[in-house]
Amino acid sequence: MFNEFLRAVLAAVIVCFAVPAAATLPIQHWRTAHGAAVYFVESHELPMLDVAVDFAAGSAYDPAPKAGLAHLAQGLLDQGAGGLSESEIAHRLADVGAVMGGHFDRDRAGVTLRTLSSRRERDQALDVMARVLQAPAYSPAVVEREKKRVIAALVEAEAQPGAVAEKAFYQAVYGSHPYARPEQGDKDAIPGITRDDLLAFHRTHYTAPNAVVAIMGDISRADAEDLAERLAAGLPPGSGVPALPAPIANPAREVRIAHPSAQSHVLIGGVGIARNDPDFFALYVGNYVLGGGGFDSRLLKEIRDRRGYAYSAYSYFAPLAVAGPFTLGLQTKTETTEDALAVARDTLAQFVAEGPSEAELAQARANLVNGFPLRIDSNRKILDYLALIGFYRLPLDYLDTWTARVEAVDVAAVRAAFARRIDPRAMVTVVVGAEPGGRP
Amino acid sequence: MNAHRKKAGAALLGLVALGLAGAAQAAVVDTTLANGLRVIVKEDHRAPVMVSQVWYRAGSMDEFNGTTGVAHVLEHMMFKGTKDVPAGEFSRRIAAAGGRENAFTSRDHTAYFQQMQKDKLPLSMALEADRMANLVIDDAAFAKEIQVVMEERRMRTEDNPQAVVQETLMATAYQTHPYRNPVIGWMNDLENMTAADARDWYARWYAPNNATLVVAGDVDAARVVADAQRFFGPLAARPLPVRKPQAEPQQRGVKRITVKVPAKLPYLALAWHAPVLRQWDRDVVPYALQILSGVLSGNDSARLPQVLVKERQIAVNVDSGFDAVARGPGLFMIDATPAEGHAVAELEAAIRGEIARIQREGVSPQELERVKSQIIAADVFQRDSLFYQAMQLGEYVTAGLPPEALEGRVSRLRSISAEDVQAAARAVLVDDALTVAVLDPQPLVPKPPRPAVPGVRHVQ
């Protein structure tokens, strides 16, 4: 039974490769009168609406002495705005069952809203969202309270070896580049951030020309246009923000930080690629084989399956506005730290030197191509793609051509791209954990 | 594809307003094969994908002392090969078909899932049926995988101060019920676990008559049932061991524990014994406790965050939670982190003061309506996730509740009154049923190192 069945499945896989993927998502795109870029997919299957508004206002835009300003500016948006107190905001949203969230990373800062699409619920929720984006109060009492909460979170993170390792990793990889700074900022700089700093940051970064509005769900095109105008019209006028500088690769370094943890957290990596890099697909598909493909990946096979050193071992590129990091990571008990580190380095070096085998790469392409429908099977996932395409100015047919770009990647392309981008001898290594023999 | 499907939105919306959202959704097919395998199918045609989950009614609550964690260890071994499908092949075949797969173990169950294009369901079923009956647990593979599981425990628990507190809280709140043991197992039990322990577990619980197949997505229910019969039908039912109730005796007075681990901030967790759903269409208290949790922490300005974080500023975080669906006895939980300069005792007193206020004065009509609005909306929102829909069905069924309990959930919650909430708070959140756990942070001093070996490491 089983073999007969497998043959049928294999045949299906081959057929899948032979047929080019059909056009996927009809993305509508326009600009509002004030210059905000809008990306919209209309879908009436569920009576709900998702909206995301993003700005180039992530932590990379922090002024150096005010690390944490961008994060606070985003985090405090809904803590009083447009004449509403923070509890009025929370209650008005909850009263219609709406959920407002945020997005914050090194590049992007923004607000997301999920609401029922019925008129009363939608209007009430969007009214709150508009006030939050356009006119945050940053009241002094709330600013002081929230600064303390962020500092508490940063202090607590010092107890977590994974968080300690990540902070040290970005610092070692990025040196004086803005990506070096932690997203939430510096607990010593936060006390000096004032209400005026927050208002000024909002005025210069949360501007209409800097806004990307993603809309997904049960709303007509005409209503979506109205919605986008309402959200963008009251934003500060201003202009776009200056581009970030290109990171410079730092020399190889090894950073060891002592921590009383049962496991050592190991991170290896360096400066990777920007979102618009022509090597993106070759590196993405290639990395599936190295450390992105779970049990298909060499790192998990070598470190977990063969040796039992770790529960998790992975690698990934995090493409950003300018070159984001390439990261390889694992966690292992103190006693196996040096062995696991050596295996990880050898695995990386061998992969960069030799590239993937034909069979490995075929498996990577098969997974990515056949799994593509899972990437856009919910409103939430589509919203995230709209926001991504808009923020990084990816082509509108990005999803339509995605599987073809994956299928076009061959072994030579992977080998060449990794050779250009990853020098295993020039990696930063961070190890946070106990010294061998130190634990009972 | 999402955007070009039939438009059910407008009609649905009217029903949502009436609180009848469940009626507009596709009916759930619920059937049982001759060998005892239960098959549950929920059609959802929004995207050309499906999720398939096999749930075993075997979780950490079915374990015995000395082998805690074996349910989860077996979950790991289920990826290690059968007579026909060698180690690594299961995952490789699913991946080649574009699937995403994993598994999870809880106190009540162990479940395995694949998310794939809709036409790949037979592959998923063939592989799951195979490992339901034909798993090979090899000594050498076990010896490696148990190391992986210990690393997982170090990552999830040992190096996470709040997880250590939660684990200790469970071991204290429950005196006899096996919910007192962590799902991942105690480290000493993992260190002494053998391949034979895993084989015993597999032989004991992995049978079609102890499993439920849940499929959701762009599938035809009749076809799914036919395929289930084709792949799982040939597997033989086996007698299952008798499950002892192990009922938790009544707690007789507040329990207090302090956990001292390296950390930066203190932390407080409170747990009260609380009834879970048994007769879903008659029970009131479990639903009232879910509403109560919403009143306490269901939005950014709900009672606990409003009073403790925003007004009095004695906490940096506070949350509450109650899971009404479980095989074993439940807990109503609140946890919080004190703000700098405020003692854990002060925070505990403030939390209990807010509870006492609800017990005394009840909740307002606006608060009640607000929580209900959130529940109604969340019921629509969760239909955006196929995986979550299947997950809920699996949890309900494994906990002994029928799919109708899930469909009727919103209307049951809507029937709860302010008086019900107040009565539940009075009956359940009492000191004699309370356990309080406090994290007492110890300095983050690294253990003393062994004498350095020159030339090996470069400390910066």
Look at the structure and give the mean pLDDT of chain B: 92
Number of helices of chain A: 15
Rg from alpha-carbon coordinates of chain B: 24 Å
Q: What is the arithmetic mean of pLDDT of chain A?
A: 93
Low-confidence stretches of chain A: 1-22
Element-by-element helix/strand order of chain A: HEEEHHEEHHHHEHEEHHEEHHHHHE
Helix run count of chain B: 18
Structural class of chain A: alpha+beta
| Main sheet characteristics of chain B | 6 strands, mixed
Strand % of chain B is 15-25%
User: In oligomeric terms, what are we looking at?
Assistant: heterodimer
Task: Tally the beta strands of chain A.
Answer: 11
- Unreliable stretches covering 5 or more consecutive residues of chain B: 1-24, 449-460
Helix proportion range of chain A: 40-55%
Number of strands of chain B: 11
Q: Output the strand order for the largest sheet of chain B.
A: 1-2-6-3-5-4
